[in-house]
Amino acid sequence: MKKHKKKYLVALVVMLLSAGTVGARAVFANGDVIWGGESNTQSISDSLDKLSLNIKQKKDSISSLNSSLETVKRDLETSNGSVQTYKNSVSGYESQLSNLKAQLASKDNEIAGKQNEIAGKQNEIQQKIAEIQQKIDEGNQKVAAKQAEFDAKQNEFNAINQQLSESNRKLGELQNSYSQKTSDLEKANSTIADYAAKLEKAKNEVNNLKQKADRVVSENQ
User: Fold this and answer.
1) Does residue 30 form part of some domain?
2) Which UniProt keywords apply (predicted)?
3) Residue 221: pLDDT band by 50, 70, 90 thresholds?
4) Residue 112 placed within a domain
5) Is residue 164 part of a domain?
6) Is 19 exposed, middle or buried (0-12, 13-18, 19+ CB in 10 A)?
7) If 43 and its partner were Cys, which of 38, 55, 93, 130 is the partner (CB 3.0–4.6 Å)?
C-alpha cells in the first residue's frame, strides 16, 4: 500500500509540472487540486503545499484507519481466541454431555431392569398376599364354624344348667318336704308310742281288774 501511495504522489507532481509548463488546464476528479493553467512558480508551490497538506491529512486518516484496523485485528484475534476457548469449552461440554447421555442410557437400562425386577417382586408379593388372604378366609370360616359349634354347645350348656338349677330347686323343695314329713312322722310316732303305752297300761289295768274280779268271784262261791 505504501509503494502505491509513492507512485501516486510522483505521478501527481509530474502532472502538475507538466501542466505548468505547457499551460494546460488540469482538473482532478477528487476535487482536491484545480489547476487553471497558471505559469508562475508561486501558484505551483501553493498548489503543491495544498496537495502536501491534503496528502498529510489523507496519510493521517489512513494512519488512523490503520490504527483502528490494528485495534480491530487485535480485538478480532482476541475474539477468535475467545471463540476458540468457547469452542473448546463447548467441545468439552459436548463430550461431558455425551458421557452423561451414555450414563443416563445406562441408568435407564438399569432402572428398566430394576423396574422389571420390582414388577416381578410385586407380582410375587401379590400372589403371596392372595394366598395369605385365602388362608385367612379359610381360617375365618373355620373360626365361624367353631364359634357356631361353641355357641350351640354354650346354649346346650345353658339349657342343661337351667335344668340343673330347676332340678336343684325342686330337690330343695323335696328335701324341705321330706324334712317336714320326717318331722311329722316323728311326731306321729311319738304320739303312737304314747298311745301304745296308754293302751298297754289300759290292758294291764283291765287284766288287773279281771283278775281281781275273778278272785272276788272265786271267794264268793
Assistant:
1) yes
2) Coiled coil, Signal
3) low
4) no
5) no
6) buried
7) 38
